[in-house]
């Protein structure tokens, strides 16, 4: 009887302990106990880890060494200790690790002949040596490398979409560093968002619509999936094209609007609309394109002219739109050079790149190819079970693994209804424009 009671009491104590552990505030627990232990072990193991990851260099040092001396009367060889110059393995100097929300970071001084690329190549080996989820490498200035370690994948669960009060700036998710993932059209005006079906492209577009809906911007949609994606958001859209024919005319409007704004800026001696006095400044326009490939696919030769017009107009918007407050966000399952030179030229204009899970290596290469090859490898490794995870490049010239906040169609629809009164009418925006020449 008493044994059973002891077992029960022990089980109750373990259960209570586990509950308390689950409710511990992770960062404070991490700061108080986890981080000091980890930092000590990182510092203690640095020589071995650097040696194992080929990050050391041989340097000549004055060192006490043992050399064979004279033969003693016993017949044994006497050893002598001598101070002499020998080649020793030198590890890069490591500052004290600092705690971050999801792990730690540490600054290193590179050794002669080393580049940040050498550390990026060794990142996976470093992560395995220290038993962490991932190591990311950045270089704040020449001669310095920062290793950022994440202890566990911070993208397994991301929180609710926060409000986005700044104009043309939307926090759409979280980066693997724990920082917010922000799309800021004024910093990076044009974006390519690629991903296979069910990879999370539309979810990201939903997050953008929810973030921008409350802002004084005009939203324009090109929904080449027959309107199924953006029609529910029509109350907040100023214009929506759901077919190639409608796209040709809407793009002609956008080009005419851009030319009109050019004239306005020229008259006011301004280089862009942001230099205009607020009273004269026209409303910024964010153009959302879903299924980019549909704009370029040709079923028969009769569509050739239409495609050429669409392609040229979209490219002009991408080339000149930034200064005149017209921004692009283009989504596509497949963005390959086989779609024609228009796509390749458009891609070159889009400095913001988002690559969700993709089916073909070419789309990943087209989206991220001219970035670090490691970004490409990371994009190919995105699992189907993690929709919304993407490799993101843009703002600061670096690439990151990130995950968008989950935003259901219902939430985006509700935002579109709530802020429908903020949608500028397209006819008002374009009323003073000359008739576009479509022939
Ligand atoms: N960040 C996310 N977190 C959790 N679930 C997500 C996330 N993003 C997308 N999902 C889930 O993945 C599913 C597919 O997402 P979404 O519709 O955005 O994919 P898609 O790439 O637009 O697909 P398609 O090209 O077929 O329209 C959604 O039903 C949603 O439940």
Automatic annotation (TrEMBL):
GO molecular function, one term: DNA binding
UniProt keyword ATP-binding, yes or no: yes
Domain FtsK: 178-365
Domain of life according to the entry: Bacteria
Keyword presence, Nucleotide-binding: yes
Amino-acid positions noted as binding ATP in the UniProt annotation, renumbered to this chain: 195-202
Key words of the record: ATP-binding, Nucleotide-binding
Pfam family, one: FtsK_SpoIIIE
Record-given protein name: FtsK domain-containing protein
């Amino acid at each position: 009887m008493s044994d059973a009671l002891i077992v029960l009491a022990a089980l109750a104590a373990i259960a209570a302990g586990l509950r308390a552990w689950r409710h511990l505030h992770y960062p404070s627990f991490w700061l108080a106990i986890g981080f000091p232990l980890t930092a000590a072990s990182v510092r203690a193991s640095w020589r071995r880890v650097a040696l194992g990851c080929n990050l050391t260099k041989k340097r000549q040092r004055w060192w006490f060494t043992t050399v064979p001396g004279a033969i003693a009367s016993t017949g044994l060889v006497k050893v002598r200790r001598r101070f002499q110059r020998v080649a020793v393995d030198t590890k890069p100097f490591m500052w004290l690790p600092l705690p971050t929300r999801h792990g730690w970071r540490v600054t290193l001084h590179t050794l002669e002949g080393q580049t940040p690329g050498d550390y990026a190549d060794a990142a996976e080996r470093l992560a395995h040596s220290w038993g962490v989820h991932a190591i990311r490498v950045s270089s704040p200035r020449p001669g310095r490398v920062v290793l950022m370690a994440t202890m566990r994948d911070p993208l397994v669960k991301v929180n609710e979409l926060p409000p986005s009060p700044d104009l043309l700036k939307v926090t759409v998710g979280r980066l693997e560093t724990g920082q917010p993932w922000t799309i800021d059209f004024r910093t990076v005006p044009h974006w390519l968002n690629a991903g296979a079906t069910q990879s999370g492209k539309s979810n990201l577009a939903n997050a953008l619509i929810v973030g921008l809906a409350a802002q004084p911007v005009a939203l324009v949609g090109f929904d080449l999936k027959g309107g199924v994606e953006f029609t529910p958001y029509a109350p907040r859209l100023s214009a929506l094209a759901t077919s190639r024919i409608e796209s040709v005319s809407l793009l002609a409007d956008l080009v005419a609007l851009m030319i009109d704004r050019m004239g306005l800026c020229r008259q006011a001696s301004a280089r862009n609309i942001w230099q205009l006095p607020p009273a004269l400044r026209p409303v910024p326009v964010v153009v959302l394109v879903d299924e980019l490939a549909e704009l370029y696919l040709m079923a028969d030769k009769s569509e050739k002219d239409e495609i050429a017009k669409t392609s040229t107009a979209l490219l002009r918007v991408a080339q000149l739109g930034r200064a005149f407050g017209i921004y692009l966000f283009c989504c596509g399952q497949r963005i390959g050079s086989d779609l024609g030179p228009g796509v390749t030229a458009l891609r070159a204009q889009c400095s913001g790149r988002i690559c969700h899970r993709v089916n073909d290596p070419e789309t990943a290469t087209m989206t991220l190819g001219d970035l670090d090859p490691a970004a490409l490898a990371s994009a190919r490794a995105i699992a189907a079970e993690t929709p919304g995870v993407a490799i993101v490049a843009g703002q600061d010239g670096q690439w990151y693994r990130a995950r968008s906040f989950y935003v259901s169609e219902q939430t985006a629809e509700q935002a579109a209804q709530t802020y429908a009164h903020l949608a500028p009418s397209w006819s008002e925006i374009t009323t003073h424009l000359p008739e576009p020449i479509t022939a």
